[in-house]
């Protein structure tokens, strides 16, 4: 079974004050932590979607084996990044059985939780598999191929969660090892 990985890294980090993904947590930038985490898994294809002006993020992504897709209008929302990344990764590997969508600002996510998510998807390959903690759904999530058209059609500031809401009977929730793993860093106070 072939699974791809999309790393979403095109947000402006406005609430953070800008430069969020290059901010260091425990001595490593958030983007470097995310790239390191997801490069450990042998995905069939990878892509990191970012802004055109984020040359350092692009450099780090390429150095970690993530081809870069540029979102030319990221202010329109995360849905545009999901659509662009989905089209980009499928252009590289059209026969993906599933795509894992991850955000780059979850610095405490562990390899063990990512592995558990993938194992659950492999056991339920026709369902959307999403990480959660005590039933609170979060990122990342893996979508099977039948949902790619819906993901490619996203346009607003709503990502894969919109697809999940349309198909509540097709979700497999996978418990993370801690609540902190689901935390995304939106402000410097987090």
Task: Characterise this structure.
Strand 2 and strand 3 (28-29) form a beta hairpin. It is built from six helices and nine strands. The longest helix has 15 residues, at 78-92. It has one domain (3-182): Alpha-Beta Complex (Spore Coat Polysaccharide Biosynthesis Protein SpsA, Chain A). The model has no long low-confidence stretch (mean pLDDT 89). The protein has a seven-stranded mixed β-sheet, sandwiched between helices. The protein has helices at 30-39, 55-63, 78-92, 111-123, 148-152, 160-166; strands at residues 3-9, 24-25, 28-29, 45-50, 68-70, 98-103, 128-133, 136-144, 171-175. It is of the alpha/beta class. The radius of gyration is 15 Å and the shape is globular.
Please specify the SSE layout and strand pairing.
Blueprint: E1 3-9, E2 24-25, E3 28-29, H1 30-39, E4 45-50, H2 55-63, E5 68-70, H3 78-92, E6 98-103, H4 111-123, E7 128-133, E8 136-144, H5 148-152, H6 160-166, E9 171-175
Parallel strand pairs: 1-4, 1-6, 4-5, 7-9
Antiparallel strand pairs: 2-3, 6-8, 7-8
Throw out a few tags for this protein:
190 residues, alpha/beta, Spore Coat Polysaccharide Biosynthesis Protein SpsA, Chain A, 7-stranded mixed β-sheet, two-stranded antiparallel ribbon, 24% strand, globular
Low-confidence stretches: none
- The CATH homologous superfamily is named Spore Coat Polysaccharide Biosynthesis Protein SpsA, Chain A
Shape: globular
Helix segment count?
Answer: 6
- Largest sheet, described in full? 7 strands, mixed
Question: Portion of residues in helices?
Answer: 25-40%
């Amino acid at each position: 079974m072939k699974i791809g990985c999309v790393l979403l890294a095109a947000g402006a980090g406005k609430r953070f004050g800008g430069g969020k993904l290059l901010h260091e947590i425990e001595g490593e930038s958030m983007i470097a932590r995310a790239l390191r985490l997801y490069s450990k898994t042998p995905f069939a294809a990878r892509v990191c979607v970012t802004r055109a002006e984020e040359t350092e993020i692009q450099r780090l992504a390429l150095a970690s084996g993530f081809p870069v897709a540029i979102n030319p209008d990221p202010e329109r929302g995360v849905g545009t990044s999901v659509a662009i990344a989905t089209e980009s990764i499928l252009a590289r590997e059209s026969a993906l059985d599933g795509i894992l969508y991850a955000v780059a600002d979850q610095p405490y996510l562990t390899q063990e939780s990512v592995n558990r998510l993938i194992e659950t998807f492999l056991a339920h390959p026709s369902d959307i598999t999403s990480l959660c903690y005590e039933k609170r759904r979060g990122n990342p999530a893996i979508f099977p191929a039948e949902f790619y058209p819906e993901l490619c059609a996203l346009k607003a500031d709503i990502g894969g969660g919109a697809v999940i809401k349309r198909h509540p009977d097709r979700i497999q929730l996978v418990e993370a090892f801690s609540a902190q793993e689901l935390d995304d860093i939106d402000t410097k106070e987090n």
